[in-house]
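Priority: low. Protein: DUF4185 domain-containing protein. Input follows.
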Amino acid sequence: MRKVKDLTGPGITDRFGVGGTDLGVMAPAPDGRLVSVFGDTFERAGIGGPGWRSPVVLFADPSTATAGIGWTGSLGGKAYAEQALPYHHDSIIHGRRVSTVIPTDLITIGDDMYLHVMVCEGIGNVHWTELHRSTDNGESWQHTGTTWPGDLHGGLFQMLTWGLGDDGWVYAFTTGFRRDQGLMLHRVPARRLADPTAWEGWGFRDGAWAWGNPPTVALTGAYGELCLRPIGGRWLLSFFDAGNYRIDVMNLDVPTANLYEAPRATALGGTSWAAENHERGRVAQLYGGYIVPGSTVDDLHLVVSQWNTETNWPYRAMQFVGRAPAAR
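Result:
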């Protein structure tokens, strides 16, 4: 992949009070706008200082999606991108200290949008996850009342990505937030997304894989951020392969495809700061890798994060373009 542009930072998003931020998972709103949800955000470039909030929502013109995303506004129609959910950082919530709430993915079903978030005490320590809904194209979000414990399925139901199939089911891959575990697969009827009892796992038991079994690891490894999207009759799964320090993309015929045999390619490779080359797909301290709406298999755009943990800048989201691996 090659870089299209920086998506956040000075001169780009500081008019929204967004200097340093990351993630930027995207989905089309019912009204056609692109909705992008970012993680820990600060007014200054980098991490720390005033204006700490998470998650933060920015809107984009869909016509700019594959040419270079152009932001048009922020949550609530305000110039300053306010925090989307009502809580205070480093506070006690339900008896647990919560430092931040981090988005993992969002999805549009009919006239509603749903946002899945992790409620965390520090990076990697997830107390529980939550589901929020917007009925006004991402302008505001309300808690659905749906939560899942952080240790569900051995901690492998924290980081989540999902996609809506033509069959009326939402399919979701999940993993842990420590970037040291494999992937599980689940599904739920779209109309019952907010009902935890309606979710069922894809599991191996009695010599066969089947729905309704306790979910088992469908792909071993050490994974982080995930993004599953149905595109052109296929299912593309992009993910941060922390174990191999890279972002990979898979091309699946169905979500239940054998992930060990599915076409897979490296989109971006991790490297040192001295060896960076964004035109050749070499990015230092990369993570994320969210598919931009409007992408195709041959014109695949990803939102990729970068954080220099020594200097705290760059701490930003960027857009890259390339091709997904061909179907076999």
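The chain has no helices and 24 strands. The mean pLDDT is 97.
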